[in-house]
Amino acid sequence: MITYLTELDTKGYIDEPIDPTLDLVEEINKLKKEKNAVLLAHYYQEPEIQDIADYIGDSLGLSQQAAKTQADVIVFAGVHFMAETAKILSPQKKVLLPDLKAGCSLSDSCPPHLFAKFKEQYPDHIAITYVNCTAELKALSDIVCTSSNAVQIVDSLPPDQKIIFGPDKNLGDYVRRKTGRDLVLWNGACMVHELFSQERIQHLRRQFPHAKFIAHPECEKELLDAADYIGSTSGLLKYTQESDSDTFIVATESGIIHQMEKASPGKTFIPAPPNNACACNDCPYMKLNTLEKVYNCMKFDLPEVDLPAGIIARAKRPIERMLEISERLGL
Ligand code: 13P
Ligand code: SF4
């Protein structure tokens, strides 16, 4: 146990050697049954993890699952703030994250003590925070939102309600344009969604003139202005299924393309290229999770994500408000 804990401190995950003859998919499925565990995976996970998940979804869908699961253990194949959200919604359950270093640049762009100071400047505003933030930040918020429901949540508030929105300035600006409301924005961003190259995308569009260009609202305004459709990962997936088009240039993390290809096998999906030599944009945090780490974390029940009771108590209400509004609006 002591070795494991030291490993967790230095590496962030259990690095126990795994018998190479083991069929990891079979072993993970066995562990799920033995421990009454549910494996939740975000669309940005490696395809092999998505394929053994009990539920694959966007941040809203994953929170809804975490709130209602009957399992004793939630294995979260995603990033740290997602596992924290699951813990806040189901504090009596054990929440495991295969790699504790699976963080988020957007969450890191908003340290809670600085946000608390920022809030003090706007005492007559409420704070809406995008779920991509720490539990401490959620505890400072009035309502949490995801990219699936941010516009509808802002729209559901009285027109004279003043609002601070954080941490994502791109999503905040998008919500501002869609709702016509004057939101005060925190200056944070996701490094993955800010890295797309306009020039390379334009080049691709010239090459595939019939392709639809679709983008996640964490992308910058100039890119969103050029998009045929803007939506959360589940929104983008649904659009590709329902659209008559057969080719799509996809501006979000490339993991989603696995589900797009599964849902529409005859269609072509081209990842929007970033501002470097790579062909697509991967989230370095999301991609820290591997099948081996999922297996070891289920076998050893580590790393576990836990939070102080006070934070859970304060962060729960703004997340529940989001879930209540989403349910009311059928999202
Ligand atoms: P959604 O899951 O809401 O589409 O957000 C994408 C994201 O960046 C998750 O980290
Ligand atoms: Fe965070 Fe961006 Fe990675 Fe999503 S894609 S987890 S917002 S760094």
Automatic annotation (TrEMBL):
Residues annotated for [4Fe-4S] cluster binding in this entry: 104, 190, 283
Give me the Gene Ontology terms describing cellular component: cytosol
Q: Which UniProt keywords apply?
A: 4Fe-4S, Cytoplasm, Iron, Iron-sulfur, Metal-binding, Pyridine nucleotide biosynthesis, Transferase
Q: SUPFAM superfamilies under this entry? A: NadA-like
Some GO term, biological process aspect, for this entry: which one?
'de novo' NAD+ biosynthetic process from L-aspartate
Q: Which Pfam families match?
A: NadA
**Binding of iminosuccinate: at which residues?**
42, 59, 130-132, 147, 216-218, 233
Question: How does the cofactor attach, per the note?
Answer: Binds 1 [4Fe-4S] cluster per subunit.
**Essential cofactor(s):** [4Fe-4S] cluster
Q: Can you name one GO molecular function term for this protein?
A: quinolinate synthetase A activity
Q: Which Gene3D superfamilies match?
A: NadA-like
Q: What is its EC number?
A: 2.5.1.72
Location relative to the cell: Cytoplasm
Q: Which domain of life is it from?
A: Bacteria
Family membership: Belongs to the quinolinate synthase family. Type 2 subfamily.
Instruction: Check the record and name the NCBIfam families matching this protein.
Output: nadA (TIGR00550), PRK09375.1-2 (NF006878), PRK09375.1-4 (NF006879)
Q: What does this protein do?
A: Catalyzes the condensation of iminoaspartate with dihydroxyacetone phosphate to form quinolinate.
Q: What is this protein called?
A: Quinolinate synthase
Q: Which organism is it from?
A: Parapedobacter luteus
Q: What is the lineage of its organism?
A: Bacteria, Pseudomonadati, Bacteroidota, Sphingobacteriia, Sphingobacteriales
